[in-house]
Design goal:
This protein is of the alpha/beta class. The protein has 11 helices and 12 strands. The radius of gyration is 24 Å and the shape is elongated.
Length: 334
Amino acid sequence: MSNIRKVAELAGVSVATVSRTLKSPDIVSPATRDKVRRAIEASGYRPNQMAVQFRSRRSHNLAVLVPTIANTFFARVIAGVQQAAREQGYGVLLCNTLGQEEDEIQYAGMVAARQADGVIQLRAFNPFPDDAVEPGRPLPMVNACEVLDDAPCPTLRIDNRAAARTLTEHLIALGHRRIAMIQGPRRSPLTRDRVAGYRDALAAAGIAPDETLLCPGDFTPASGHAAAGSLLAVEAPPTAIFCESDEMAIGAISRLRQAGLSVPADVSVAGFDDIAFASYSDPALTTIAQPAEAFGRRAVEMLIDILEGRGEIESRVVLPHELVIRDSTSPPRD
């Protein structure tokens, strides 16, 4: 196994520079980091990470708390996290919490145990106790995607209320008046904000809301399938369905077809997230595109800024969203 001196020789830098690059890559120029990286790959050198951690008292690991790895949107966020972390010399500990607070608290405890340096939380819950850090020091966490209103750490999200209003306005502009909504979990801030945006658009168009057109879901295809069946049973079924996730929209389309209905000829269906399947579903899904990979990358950058003490950090970051119009929405039948 090649040693660190061989790496330094191949990179044309000092041993101290190689060591600095391994321990604190952010303080080394990108050009030097690249030379050291290529030299490590060429030599087959593998640093003794336990020794590095012992000297620095840091693990160079980031814990990512994910409500469910089965959700394809979160898979894209995780991909962004992994890429950004790798570029900055950090490892990623993926924690599939299933939204269980006890598990999230346990995983956050890895910071105190020096198994992780910080946490990226993708759900609206703070897993750290009030006395987790010394007064005046920031909490080693970034809350992304679904965020707490009063999060004691930087947050990263899109404007879900504005996005839901935009999508509902698209359906209204097509001529729909009976617009249903398949919601996410009732306790989720995402559901609160998206329902508010949906109601904003209806009110602006002078459309009275019909509570029978609001159905609960949990972001899964199965819940979209079940909710669509419930909507078909109301006295005046909707001509359009806004689903709070693409996965629920795909489940809803399946149920509508089982009932002999055509999408969008009989019922328009729209989703939210723009997962990979959205453009390949039949029909291709109209949706709100969220910058999933950007969520992951930006969360890593913000967390490492906290860990490295890099000046003032933005506390509330809002990323852009985009309405993507595809084949699953069209004007209603006369």
